[in-house]
Amino acid sequence: MSPMFRALSIRNYRLWASGAIVSNTGTWMQRVAQDWLVLTQLTDNSGVAVGITTALQFAPVLLLAPWAGAATDRFDRRKVLIATQIASAVLGLTLGLLVVTGLAELWMVYALATGLGIVAAVDGPARQAFVSELVPVDYLPNAVGLNSASFNAGRLLGPGIAGLLINWFGTGPVFLINGVSFIAVVFSLTRMNRAELGHQQRPARGNRSARAGLAYVRSRPEIALIMGIVGLVAMLGLNSQITIALMARLTFDKGAGEYGILGSVMAIGSLGGALLAARREHPTVKLVIGAAAAFGATSILSALMPTYWSFGLMLIPVGLFALTMLTAANATIQLATEPAMRGRVMALYMAILMGGTPVGSPIIGWIGEEFGPRWTVLIGGIGTLLVALAAMALVSRSPVLQEAVARADRGPALTVTATTERAKTTGTPESEAVARATASRAETTTEVTGKSAV
Questions:
Q1: Where are the stretches annotated Disordered (predicted)?
Q2: Domain segments of the chain: what residues?
Q3: Which of 211, 242, 268, 328 has the smallest number of CB atoms closer than 10 Å to its CB?
Q4: How far apart are CA 13 and CA 131, in angstroms?
Q5: Which of 334-338, 354-358, 378-382 is least confident?
Q6: pLDDT digit string (tens) for 398-429?
Q7: H or E stretch including 69?
Q8: How buried is 18 (Cβ within 10 angstroms: 0-12 exposed, 13-18 middle, 19+ buried)?
Q9: Are 196 and 20 in contact (CB under 8 A)?
Q10: What is the CB-side half-sphere exposure of residue 195 using CA atoms within 13 A?
Q11: Cα separation of 258 and 262, whole Å?
Q12: What is the pLDDT of residue 241?
């Protein structure tokens, strides 16, 4: 099998990927339909209302992340994911029925968006950490890349399908289809061979708290740097579902079909970035920073495009560099994190990634209303470019950060000792948890390295 798809040689991962692409397509269909419902049916083209809806959907991820991550490390992730998929299906079907029956009001959309956010707070870290149970450690970068490819294949298909369905039948059926799509993931999870799943390393007593996860991230400057970059970029530049809707509707005077096409065109670049990431054996912190800079620069150029089609074509490199940054960040953090801490660390990562949206989306919506949609894209691009340049300057001026980045870029087997020693010297319960976790990582990495050498 091609190195780009080697994780698919594992049956459990094939089941996971097949269910995920169906669900991802439904999720992107709902995102388009939800924004269009709020923008055109429940308000008079209110960018602020769309921003509030998005904020409510992502705010719980930010607020509940520490506890959600601790639960992900403590409980069976497969069972957690089955529960979150069922809950997501119920919420999607409820919104669909409200719209179809003509009973939907803006406050109801707000409430259901909040419910989806609460479910996502648990689902996100469980989903990310569960991948490490499906594949060996040396397959993890490939599996993360293919996960992103699946997500963006859904993003490629979903908006276009949603745009057509909205034109033909309205937004209601789109929500119903999304609700049904979660059954695919439940089916794939129940069909897995549990004996072939990797052992979920549970945290030791005294190492189960959310605070231990925060302490762990503080002890790893390379992880903290990546999270800082992703969080700021998410707040400033990763608001495409708002900016593209405003550009399509207000700048280019287009309808739902053309709006869906823009999302699908951007997904072409995103899918390309994910597939390129799947070919990469080991991501680096430098790649995260470089991709963020390229994402900011191409976003600025897209804001200056004079026509609908030139703007759409420019979204291809925008999507490519955005997904290169996110996929590299995800894989780097997972490879650098101890198995017993992975749920909490990924919960913090998801909180920062998705939590930046509640802060940025209402502001972006207000900028669009006051100054025009182009400024929403332009300001996001400029801000993202400045974040990348600041990260480069920070690394160049900090010897400690340079050492941590170099260690991470050399590979996961070389990221253990210094962190363990730093954790041992502080003497706090949280730092002791870090020391225990990193010591366990050393044993696991040695075992994996020995098998690889053979």
A1: 418-454
A2: 3-453
A3: 211
A4: 8
A5: 354-358
A6: 888 888 888 776 655 434 433 344 444 444 44
A7: helix 47-74
A8: middle
A9: no
A10: 0
A11: 6
A12: 65
